[in-house]
Automatic annotation (TrEMBL):
SUPFAM superfamilies: S-adenosyl-L-methionine-dependent methyltransferases. InterPro entries: Cation-dep_OMT, SAM-dependent_MTases_sf, SAM_O-MeTrfase. This is Caffeoyl-CoA O-methyltransferase. GO terms for molecular function: O-methyltransferase activity; S-adenosylmethionine-dependent methyltransferase activity. It comes from the Eukaryota. GO terms for biological process: methylation. The gene is CCoAOMT1. Keywords: Methyltransferase, S-adenosyl-L-methionine, Transferase. Belongs to the class I-like SAM-binding methyltransferase superfamily. Cation-dependent O-methyltransferase family. PANTHER family: CAFFEOYL-COA O-METHYLTRANSFERASE-LIKE, O-METHYLTRANSFERASE-RELATED. Gene3D superfamilies: Vaccinia Virus protein VP39.
């Protein structure tokens, strides 16, 4: 069936936003990755959620589809069964996770805003993976502290994806080193913050952008110095740091 005009314009909108959101030197190269490797293999439910999210006023907050594809592969490579996500928004990265988990896998998704999650939830339900998701509404720090109180939760998670308020990233880190098992992965999103981490301190940027740049640089420094983890900072999406817990 021919695509409707509305569908076409939503698609163009999603495409335009993705053009603004990558760290490669040439947009054509990013489009090449999307067109040849990502879109042809993207599950229908992820496409639907990506397009719905692109039309949200804060749609750029979701990870891009090439990063989603990587996340799915990574979760499968490590045979993740029990994972946690901080910062859900409409649920795009959460749906990637739920799709990658085995039928009896579980992901705890934490967000202080249930409204945006509710936008994506029907698509997640239709995809048949909602039973793997335990959504917890609230501030992440107290929720993590509560999880730590339960001894069964300590050293039990295979994987964590952190994509919420950057000011608290190091607070999350200490708690996740308790919750994620030795050999498990903790992943921090936006660790290149649009490339601003390598720009001069007086470079032109918004107050909020400068603030987040500051906390991102502090996080990157702390992760690089932390001997409890092995790390790799990948230039995918807006920068993704993988940390493997080793002690
Ligand atoms: N991971 C999502 C994705 O890729 O589709 C995007 C998450 S968005 C960048 C960040 C989310 O973190 C927002 O939905 C916001 O409500 C949530 N958030 C921010 N600060 C938080 C906090 N202190 N506790 C819980 N959630 C928080
Ligand atoms: Ca992000």
């Amino acid at each position: 069936m021919a695509e409707s005009n509305q569908g076409k314009s939503q698609n163009a909108n999603a495409q335009q936003k993705l053009t603004q959101k990558h760290l490669l030197q040439k947009d054509a190269l990013y489009q090449y990755i999307l067109q040849t490797n990502v879109y042809p293999r993207e599950p229908e439910c992820l496409k639907e959620l990506r397009e719905l999210t692109a039309n949200h006023s804060r749609g750029l907050m979701a990870i891009p589809p090439d990063e989603g594809q990587f996340l799915i592969l990574l979760l499968k490579l490590i045979n993740a069964k029990k994972t946690i996500e901080i910062g859900v928004f409409t649920g795009y990265s959460l749906l990637c996770t739920a799709l990658a988990l085995p039928p009896d896998g579980k992901v705890i998704g934490i967000d202080m805003n249930r409204e945006s999650y509710n936008l994506g939830r029907p698509i997640i339900e239709k995809a048949g993976v909602a039973h793997k998701i335990d959504f917890r509404e609230g501030l992440a720090l107290p929720i993590l502290d509560e999880l730590i109180q339960n001894e069964e939760m300590q050293d039990s998670f295979d994987f964590a994806f952190i994509d919420a308020d950057k000011v608290n990233a190091l607070n999350y880190h200490e708690r996740l080193l308790n919750l994620v098992k030795i050999g498990g992965l903790i992943c921090y999103d936006n660790t290149l913050w649009s490339g601003s981490v390598a720009e001069a301190p007086d470079a032109a940027m918004s107050e909020l952008g400068r603030n987040i740049r500051h906390y991102t640089i502090e996080l990157n420094k702390a992760l690089a110095a932390d001997r409890r983890i092995e790390i790799s900072l990948l230039p995918i999406g807006d920068g993704l740091t993988l940390c493997r817990r080793i002690s």
